[in-house]
């Protein structure tokens, strides 16, 4: 049985529990004030690409629903669904490319023969 459950009162159990927790260091908070230009630049680029990524789904849905006869409430619910499911949609749509890369790598390392390349060419008639 844990020590704090065997104690007679609730207050002493909390005291024992809080004594065992690590102390909070405020050094991390003060060091966060010393953010350099590299961190600001990186976070700005990541924020911009994330907004463009999310908005691409929203614009696509808007253009698909532009001439449909769906009510405004249903459209709004579809946009909210797309917004919340955006990470899952991104994983689903990028999985085939990821799997093809993994498959190519293991097929290439298994067989020492050249992987056939299927080029596209124009057939003249």
Describe the structure.
By secondary structure, this protein is mostly helical. 67% of the residues lie in helices and 0% in strands. The mean pLDDT is 78.
Main β-sheet description: none
Q: Measure the end-to-end span.
A: 86 Å
Count of helical regions = 5
Give the low-confidence spans.
Answer: none
Topology:
Elements: H1 10-20, H2 27-32, H3 37-65, H4 72-84, H5 86-110
Helix pairs in contact: 3-4
Protein traits:
extended, mainly alpha, 125 residues
In short:
The chain has helices spanning 10-20, 27-32, 37-65, 72-84, 86-110. The protein has 125 residues and is mostly helical.
């Amino acid at each position: 049985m844990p020590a704090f459950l065997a104690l007679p009162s609730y207050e002493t159990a909390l005291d024992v529990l809080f004594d065992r927790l690590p102390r909070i260091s405020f050094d991390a908070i003060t060091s966060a004030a010393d953010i350099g230009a590299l961190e600001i630049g990186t976070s700005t680029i990541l924020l911009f690409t994330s907004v463009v990524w999310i908005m691409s789904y929203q614009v696509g849905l808007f253009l698909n629903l532009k001439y449909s006869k769906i009510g405004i409430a249903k459209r709004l619910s579809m946009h909210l669904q797309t917004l919340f499911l955006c990470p899952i949609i991104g994983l689903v749509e990028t999985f085939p490319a990821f799997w093809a890369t993994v498959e190519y790598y293991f097929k290439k390392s298994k067989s020492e023969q050249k992987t056939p390349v299927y080029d596209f060419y124009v057939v003249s008639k």
